[in-house]
Structures are given as structure tokens and as C-alpha cells.
Q: What sequence folds into this?
């Protein structure tokens, strides 16, 4: 697999397609481009399903953590009266 930035939805799409869902429907549902999902699907063809499931979980946890950390500065700035630039 080449170096690329993966999103939770991309990995979820590959897993859904492997489970038997139609690729065009999956792409519409997750709002992804069909060609990028097919490319990723080809790149991941030798990756076992359980590894993809763990990758999806890790990416999801990372996304939640990023949102949490991004939200940490807002209440502090409001309480101290400091304006962010």
C-alpha cells in the first residue's frame, strides 16, 4: 500500500464494499469519489478484514481526539477574556 492519508469514511467504504454493498451506493452514502474508493480498494486487496476494522477504529478514535483537543482552547479563551488571533 502506498503512502496516503486515509479517512475513516474511506476505510469504512472499503469494508462495506467487501461485505457486499454496491460501490456506487456506498460512495453516495459516505460522500466519497468512486475512483478514489476503487483505488483504495485495490491498494488494500491484500489487507485482511480484521486489520481494516482495527484501522477504522484507530482512525475514528484519532478523529475524535483531534476534535476534543481543538475544542480545548475555546472555553479557556472565553473565560480569560483573551481574544484568539
A:
Amino acid at each position: 500500500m502506498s503512502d496516503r492519508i486515509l479517512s475513516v469514511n474511506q476505510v469504512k467504504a472499503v469494508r462495506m464494499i467487501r461485505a457486499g454493498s454496491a460501490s456506487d451506493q456506498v460512495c453516495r452514502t459516505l460522500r466519497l469519489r468512486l475512483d478514489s474508493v476503487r483505488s483504495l480498494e485495490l491498494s488494500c486487496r491484500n489487507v485482511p478484514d480484521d486489520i481494516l476494522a482495527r484501522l477504522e477504529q484507530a482512525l475514528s478514535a484519532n478523529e475524535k481526539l483531534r476534535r476534543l483537543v481543538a475544542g480545548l482552547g475555546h472555553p479557556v479563551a472565553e473565560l480569560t477574556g483573551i481574544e484568539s488571533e
The chain has a mean pLDDT of 87. The CA atoms of residues 8 and 56 lie 6 Å apart.
